[in-house]
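Hi V.,

Quick status before I head out on leave. The structure for the redesign project is tokenized and pasted below; the design run finished overnight.
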């Protein structure tokens, strides 16, 4: 038994979700991969467990995963963000939803326009769900490479700092630093910063640009 919260990653069959699942599961957290299709979730969980060398990650359909978890993380493809949030509204009530969405289009991203994806999610879900924005600047490729320690900082937004505090504990549990930077409206800047990171990679021969905060 563990006193760590169970984390469901909704849309966890994709790149970012798989990376986060690996980081948390390898640090002793119970992780559930969610998908629109149970079989896809089970297959993704099996593949990740093979990488980890232990049977630890489970797979479920998104609604069941959301209900089972203590904390949910949303990593569906950005174009499906609103529809996915709307569809999971009932299953998420009473819980924290960590929204990783960065609405930028490849290969030439432009900064997204307000409101932030996390603010849209909060408006859809209502007060019964506490949305926290995080991970927009953390590349999936870096998360998935378990041989390399993560040297990135995660900027975290939430309307209530105590919700961000809970998520920042999880982020530290996955091996990253975390900083609270304000309410969900601030998250639009963090989404836009992801576009900057894409151009940093493109023009500077960098592979997984992310951010590190300095200062006394
Ligand atoms: N990739 C990165 O490096 C990165 C970094 C920072 C933030 N993010 C953010 O993380 C999120 C996921 O990015 P990703 O690169 O991991 O995406 P992805 O691999 O392309 O897709 C993630 C998952 O989205 C689900 N999905 C696709 N269409 C859907 C729909 N119509 N409704 C509901 N779910 C749908 C799929 O899961 P099922 O088919 O199993 O349901 C898919 O496995 C995005 O919001 C992105 O902005 C990504």
């Amino acid at each position: 038994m563990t006193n760590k919260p169970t984390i469901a990653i909704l849309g966890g069959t994709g790149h970012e979700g798989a990376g986060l699942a690996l980081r948390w599961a390898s640090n002793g957290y119970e992780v559930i991969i969610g998908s629109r299709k149970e079989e896809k979730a089970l297959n993704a969980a099996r593949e990740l467990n093979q990488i980890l060398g232990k049977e630890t990650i489970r797979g479920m359909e998104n609604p069941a995963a959301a209900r089972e978890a203590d904390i949910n993380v949303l990593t569906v493809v950005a174009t499906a963000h609103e529809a996915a949030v709307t569809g999971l509204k009932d299953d998420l009530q009473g819980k924290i939803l960590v929204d990783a969405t960065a609405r930028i289009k490849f290969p030439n991203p432009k900064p997204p326009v307000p409101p932030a994806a996390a603010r849209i999610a909060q408006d859809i879900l209502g007060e019964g769900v506490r949305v926290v924005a995080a991970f927009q600047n953390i590349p999936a490729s870096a998360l998935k490479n378990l041989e390399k320690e993560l040297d990135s900082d995660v900027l975290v937004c939430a309307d209530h700092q105590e919700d961000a505090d809970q998520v920042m504990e999880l982020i530290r549990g996955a091996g990253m630093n975390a900083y609270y930077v304000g309410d969900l409206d601030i998250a639009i800047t963090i989404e836009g910063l992801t576009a900057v990171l894409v151009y940093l990679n493109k023009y500077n021969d960098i592979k997984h640009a992310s951010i590190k905060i300095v200062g006394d």
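Above is the designed sequence. The first helix runs from residue 15 to 25.

G. will cover questions while I'm gone.

Best,
W.
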